[in-house]
Specification:
mainly alpha
Amino acid sequence: MTTAALRAVPQEARFRGLFTYLTIACLGMWVAMSPLLLGGFRRTDGRAEPGIQEQLCIAGAMMAPALAAIVVVRWVERRDGRLLDALALRMPRPWSHAVRWMLAAVAVPAGLTAVALAIGTAAGVYPFGGVNWGDTTAWAGTALVQILVSLPLFFGEELGWQGYLLPRLAYGKGRARPVRAYLCTGAAFALWHLPTLLMGGQYPGRPWYVSVPAMVISCSLALPVFSWLRLASGSVIPAVIGHAFVSTASVSMVKHFAEPDAPLNPLQMSLAGWPGWIAMGALVAFLALTGRLALPAPRSAEGEKAGTTEPGSPDRTPDRRP
C-alpha cells in the first residue's frame, strides 16, 4: 500500500485498525490452540512430530493473521480497490526478478541454518553426525515437498505480518520509524506465538520464562530477513517462501544432520537458538549497514502527486539484488 493510500485513511481508523488486527490475530491463535491447551498438551521431545490434532490446530492458528488483515483493510480502513494489492500479494515482475528472489528466499535461510549448525558444531553443542549425500538428496526432496505443501499456511501468516502490519507501523515521519516498525512487528510476531510457547512448541521442555524471551530474540532477528525479501522484491511471496523454509526445512535440517539418537536442544542448535542468533544477527547487521533494510524515504507532496511513494509503502521499493 502506498503512503498516499495510507494517508487517505483517517488517523483514528489507522489506530483502530492496528488494535483490531492484533486482537483478531492473537484471539484467533488462542482459539485455535484451545483444544491443545485445555487437553494439557506439552511438547517435551525436540524430535517428536506433531499429530493430526496438533497439525489442525496449528493450521487454524496460522490463518488468523491473514483473516485479521483482510477484516481491517475491508471494514476498518475501508480501502477501495484490490485487496491483494493492499497486502502486496502479487508476483514480483519481471519473471527474472521473481525467480531471483524466490531462489534467494530458499538459499538465504538454508545458508543461515548451515552457518548455525557449523557454529553449534564448533562450540560442541550440536551433535553433528556427518553427511551422507544419498540420504541428503532424499531429505532435500522431502523438504521441498514440505515447503510447497505448507505454503498456503505461511501466506496466512505473512499477509498479516509483512502485508499489513509492517507497512502500517512504518508509516510516519522521523528517523526512528524503521526501528519502530521492525522491533514492534518482531515483538508482535513473537508474542503471537505465546500459546504454543506455553506448550513447549518451539522450545520443548523449556519453561515459558525461557522460551518467551528466546522467541522474542529469534523473531526480532528473523523478521528483518523476511522484510528484506518482501521490500526488495515488492511482494510478500518471497517472504512467505523464506518463512516456510525456516519453519519446515530448517527444522528438519537440524534433525537430519544430527547423530540419530542425540537429544536436540533448539536453544543451542537451530535458528531459534544462540547459534542461529549469531548467524541471523550478522546478516541483519550487513543488510542494515548496506541500506537494504531502509524503508522508502519521505517525499514531498508534489512528489506524491507525481506518483512516487513514501513511508509505509515498501511494496514499491527499488530492486535490491540479493
